[in-house]
UniProtKB/TrEMBL annotation:
Gene3D superfamilies for the chain: Ribonuclease Inhibitor (3.80.10.10)
Domain of life: Eukaryota
Full protein name: Receptor-like protein 12
Presence of keyword Repeat: yes
Pfam families: LRR_4 (PF12799), LRRNT_2 (PF08263)
PROSITE patterns registered for this protein in UniProt: LRR
Gene: LOC104599632
Amino acid sequence: MGMRCIRLLHSYKVAVEFLVTLFLLLLRFDGCQASSSSSPTTTTHRCVEEERRALLQLRDSFNFPNGHALSYWVGDDCCKWKGVECDLFSSTSRVISIDISYERQSEQGTWYPNATLFTEFKQLQTLDLSGNKISGWINVQALCQLHNLKELWVGGNNLGDDGLPWCLGRSLPFLEEVSLWGNNRGPSGIF
Ligand SMILES: *[C@@H]1O[C@H](CO)[C@@H](O)[C@H](O)[C@H]1NC(C)=O
């Protein structure tokens, strides 16, 4: 009786040990899965290379012919650059916000931004170009291709009545805010 009881207890112990080991193995396997999938995640949570190049192109055009603004835009991960914000909750981490307000240096004079430069940023939601002596645009219609745009800040520039294209109101379904305050030549009144 006592012997049988001990044997039963023993097999019970073996079974429990087996289950615990199995459980630990499964846990480990899970951990493996998690850590092997987390390393590519951390690398994708970085700047999209085309967008990094587009930002540098934007800086060149902003500084043309000999300015030195935005000189702090250096390094591989443009999501960490001042004034740049990426969508870190999506796997592509595309740029969602560009704020280069009040960056144009006084000696640089007026700026005519090439709107096509912004079309590389497919998920752009906020664009702040306030206070940069903008007197007009190159390819202004390209602004209407920024389909995810919610906010456009172009106050404190020298834009006239034709400062923004009419197509903005029709083409940009998410556009909530357009700021044109303090433009020397008056707001355009497209809304
Ligand atoms: C505007 O930018 C686009 C895209 O980089 C470029 O292809 C085009 O030549 C530029 N236009 C002018 C007039 O600079």
